[in-house]
Design a protein that fits this description.
about 450 residues; alpha/beta; three-stranded mixed β-sheet; 17 helices; about 35% helix; binds N~2~-(3-carboxypropanoyl)-L-arginine
Length: about 450
Amino acid sequence: MSAREFNFDGLVGPSHNYAGLSFGNVASFSNVKSASNPKQAALQGLAKMRSLAARGFAQAVMPPQMRPDFRMLRAVGFTGSDADVLAAAYKASPVILACAWSAAPMWTANAATVSPSADSADGKVHFTPANLNNKLHRAHERRQAARSLRAIFHDAARFTVHDALPSTPAFGDEGAANHTRLASSHGAAGVELFVYGRVEFDATAPSPKRYPARQTLEASQAVARLHRLDGRRTVFAAQNPDVIDQGVFHNDVIAVGNGNLLFYHEQAFLDEAGTLADLRAALEGVQADLKAVRVSTTEVAVADAVASYLFNSQLLSKPDGAMALVIPHECRENPAVARYLEGVVGGGGPIDELIEFDLRQSMRNGGGPACLRLRVALTDQEAAAMHQGVVMTEDLYARLVAWVEAHYRDRLQPGDLADPQLARECAVALEDLARILDLPGLYDLD
Ligand code: SUG
């Protein structure tokens, strides 16, 4: 069946800031409390969307979430008017206040796990919003993530948006950042690879020592069940705990797949040979061959992969069958990675083009090109059935740039998060955005 992969990029929200909230994410910790530029962040993300859409790649936008999350602040005991709540939270716990303001929903690879209709037993596209249990600033994203997905994929005959998994450590789920689909084409039945960092109910399973493993095997298995995947075409692989301890907090920081290609670092998996063998065996069932592009530690050290986000790139299928690799500027600035990439293009391999973007505002919080997008493979009929107001066009791009210019600040520092005026600006901006995207009920404004 003819299908395309839509990339839903997160539109960076007006409260983008550096609060150092993600223990285990090196960039988030290194840039804590530096000043951010939300306007530039949003424009950088929009420039990427526009450019890929102009190249003919199917591109859509995922709206930001309403911040601050007053519901969360009130649930933990801050009372009074909105201004009182902000002042009290700032005084008692600036870090909780920062969590309520976080613009982290911009990294839509963590919004949900998505299985296309070609993979599910009921022929529907399945979405499970990630519960993001591991971090307070992300654990409150699931509500609006489900609401936004249901607004966009409202046709229940074709799409199922599940509730997030139970919010408990056993089911820690980070969405598509730990999930890759391999198939001969976007419309063909494929193999879904779920990568987990720890096993809740097996104390003997290896787990990281320094940084948290955010995804559990139990969560990955639950998502596969919900999505009605075929066990013969589903692979569960353990992430190498040593790389989690080196800052690889999601598998998409060290591996990426597209089509039948898996581009990965030799240290990505706990059992490299076993993972590849499982993928090969599963792919045989759909008459596809695995193409594995393995990067060795001598070519690129894990620290360089983490600093440059080489693997947090997007692999995009082009009409001629080759693939483009979408990378951040940081890849060119890292000597080992730049050297490696010189050999990739023109080397006769499946990747014949590099597309580079300036995403520094996001990168400083540990979010690269692949973090910023949620992949949704859709048949032509499914694409026609989703809400059209989020599809990136030149017209939508122009309207969103004007919207950002009108509503966003170009500098935010920690102290600004106590400012009730900023909260009002964000609310006005998002209400206006809902109109632009033609999604009037997008936000729950009670
Ligand atoms: O969850 N950073 C995000 C980055 C998410 C990247 N996503 C993928 N790899 N798919 C995180 O660690 C930093 C927020 C702060 O520190 O203010 C943050 O949440």
